[in-house]
Design brief:
The chain has about 210 residues and is α/β, with parallel strands linked by helices. It has 6 helices and 7 strands, in the order ααβββαβαβαββα. It has a 7-stranded mixed beta sheet with strand order 2-1-5-4-3-6-7. A hairpin with a 5-residue loop joins β6 and β7 (about 185-190). The chain starts with 6 loop residues before the first helix and ends with a helix.
Length: about 210
């Protein structure tokens, strides 16, 4: 019969057993979730950084017209006097074509100033020729005034880049002229003229 004394203890024991199993299961699930939340995530592979662009003069030096005579195209000094690259013959000339609207030109200019300071007293001329139009000359003069010992030169018609053979690929463009006035190398784009590569290039030109 259902009201037998032995039936009640058995039913109560079964109920407690089921509740115990359920509680154990819940505890196991909670433990697994806690472990998952504290376990560190696997590290993502670190991508290698792209190589930084080099601005070393020795590496960037091109020889598109090695031995080519410098152009006879005239530009102006700070006093408005006409002159050409031939005016610097007898010196190693670093002729840089730049403009105030050219960000890389302005970035590299302090390194050209340091190059000029390093070779003061030696037959080396750093000639930075602005191709700015007359309306920008005030800005160009002010900028060069901050780059001692560089002097101001200007090509207001902006034709010197096309007088080169071959023509300049863009701004800035820098020519290395030997003491004989002939082109010994060229760099298109920004370069670090205060580094060891520049010194190696200039010293080689001085020794030839």
């Amino acid at each position: 019969m259902s009201d037998h004394p032995a039936a009640k203890p058995r039913g109560g024991f079964l109920t407690w057993a089921l509740w115990g199993a359920a509680l154990i299961g819940v505890a196991a699930v909670l433990y697994i979730m806690a472990q998952a939340s504290t376990k560190p995530a696997p590290e993502a592979p670190v991508a290698s950084a792209p190589a930084a662009p080099t601005h070393d003069v020795a590496r960037k030096l091109e020889h598109p017209a090695d031995g080519q005579a410098a152009p006879a195209y005239a530009f102006y000094d700070a006093k408005g006097r006409k002159l050409t690259a031939a005016a610097f013959k007898g010196k190693v000339v670093v002729m840089n074509l730049w403009a105030t609207w050219c960000a890389p030109c302005k970035i590299e200019m302090p390194t050209l100033a340091r190059l000029a300071r390093a070779y003061q007293g030696k037959p080396v001329a750093v000639v930075a020729v602005s191709i700015d139009k007359p309306e920008a000359l005030k800005e160009a003069r002010a900028f060069i005034a901050q780059q001692a010992p560089l002097a101001f030169y200007n090509d207001p018609d902006a034709k010197l880049p096309w007088a080169l053979k071959p023509a300049a690929a863009g701004m800035p463009t820098t020519l290395i002229l030997g003491k004989d006035g002939l082109e010994r190398g060229r760099i298109s784009g920004e370069a670090d003229w205060s580094g060891p590569g520049a010194k190696a290039v200039i010293d080689k030109a001085l020794a030839s």
